[in-house]
Amino acid sequence: MVPTGLVDAGARLPDAVLDIRYATADNFTGRRLYPVARCLLRGEVAERLVRAAAALRRQGFRLVLLDCYRPLSVQRALWKAMPRRGYVASPATGSHHNRAAAVDLSLADLEGTPVEMPTGYDAFGPRARAWATDGVTPRARRHRDTLRAAMTAAGFQVNPMEWWHFDAPEAAALPLLDLPLDGINSSPPGAGR
Description:
globular; 193 residues; 5-stranded mixed β-sheet; 4 helices
């Protein structure tokens, strides 16, 4: 049964750059894990993202969507590739991505060109931390801090281990999902607002 309330955040944010890394081999596992590049989130989480995107747009930025809902079966594959708590959530407890209540993202300029950030996506190391300063250029720090300010103002919580990862505050109370990305019919844009 498909849960109600999952929406296509990419459709809600037509100016967002869709760079869903697990739909390609350009991720830390080196292989494609998703059959399609989609950014599905729970309706209320997508609405927060829309608010953050509007604030960032006024500052001259567009969102780059890197990961959203992640099936639990994919979480198992990620854990197998990197069984390290703090970097990858154990499938035994699941990730907030498995609850469609977390989003990984970055920034691009208004033309869609990615801006400098502290690290690449899915970097495993101290510079990837949300408040890292060592080895982080002032420009990358400003971009990261701009992203974080917009996301927290919209109601997201920061993951201290990853500058790109933001959670809905209610995420831990939501059920884990293991629905295939290509089998979910999401709500159309504008639904569930």
